Amino acid sequence: MEKHIGSCRCGDIEFYFYNDPINSIFCYCKECQALTGSDKWFGLWVPKDKFKFTKGTPSTYTRAGDSGKGVNYKFCATCSSALCAEVTAGNFYSVSATSLKNNKFNPKMSIYASSAPSWAIFPTDVPKFDTLPPGMGG
Ligand SMILES: [Zn+2]
Ligand SMILES: [Zn+2]
User: Fold this and answer.
1) What b-and-e string marks burial along 56-75, b requiring 16 or more CB atoms within 10 Å of the CB?
2) Looking at the 3D structure of the chain, how many domains does it have?
3) Family, per the entry (predicted)?
């Protein structure tokens, strides 16, 4: 099994996950814009049983997702790096690709493109969805 290691910027919090993500997305929703201070979040979707925090305890900010179920953002209280979002409706973490030590993954789709700011930049070689792809729920 391949192990992928990540941390916040200051190093207080570390984590890893095993295997390739089940999806990798650019998310342009308003929440991700606020979280990143950017046009998008680069999330790697990792099943919860493949992910583990190994150092420190992240702070949590919870909001309701489109499904009504909670999305729990995990971030470092010291340096404020966003590490992942626990999507309880899907039983996975959306791990911030930028927090990995060596990110080798590329985005496979753009989601919530209808919420993107006018200056957002989209990759041209992957599908783009107004919200979520059909059948993926939310
Ligand atoms: Zn930190
Ligand atoms: Zn989002």
Assistant:
1) bebeeeeeebeeeeebbbbb
2) 1
3) Belongs to the Gfa family.
- Report how far ligand 1's centroid is from the alpha carbon of 6 (Å): 11
Model confidence pLDDT, tens digit, residues 1-35: 899 999 999 999 999 999 999 999 999 999 999 98
Per-residue model confidence as pLDDT tens digits over 58-105:
999 998 887 888 899 999 999 999 999 999 988 999 999 999 999 999
In a domain, 44, yes or no: yes
Q: What is the pLDDT of residue 64?
A: 87
To 10 degrees, the CA torsion angle through 115, 111, 29, 40?
-110
Q: In terms of residue numbers, what domain contains 19?
A: 3-115
CA of 134 to the centre of ligand 1 (A): 36
- Residue 33 C-alpha to ligand 2 middle, in angstroms? 7
Q: Is residue 127 one of the residues assigned to a domain?
A: no
Cα 73 to averaged position of ligand 2 atoms, centre (Å): 11
Q: Which ligand has the nearest atom to the CA of 114?
A: 2
Indicate whether 138 belongs to any domain.
Answer: no
